[in-house]
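WARN no homologs supplied; continuing
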Amino acid sequence: FPTRRSSDLYYTETSNLIFTTIKLNDTFGANDTRNKVFNLWNKIAKSGEILEMSAGEQIIDISYIDDVISAYEVLITHLSSDQKEDFKSKEFVVTNNEKMSLKELSKVFEEATNTRLNIKWGERPYREREVMHPYSNGTKVPNWNQKYTLKEAIKKTIGES
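OK structure emitted
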């Protein structure tokens, strides 16, 4: 079977289709039912239970869903413009301006939610193949900027859930 990339190349070369990629690291927002870190932290903040975690040194690049949607909207505008050919076969990233360790992120979460997390750091080993540094190559979508700080986005997310 051809890879997705080779099929994109085929259709790009043989038609007027424009393939453009947006790469994401992690995302969060209200009504997200995945068992992700903010949902877990919100649960223990309410219950007071203890959570054992790794040492928390992994760098987190997590984007608020409203910022992600905004990046797609900006890219759609580009792809609807006279300059759409400039975006053919290009790859872009949506990345947060505030990259920090998981441990530092827990402090931002506590500030945003006015709670205290009962986390025992270093009690669990890192997962096999743990991502310690997120994907950082690539160019941000032209004319797109992150609107919400992590603290603002966490407040909106936890307040809306």
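The first helix runs from residue 4 to 14.
OK
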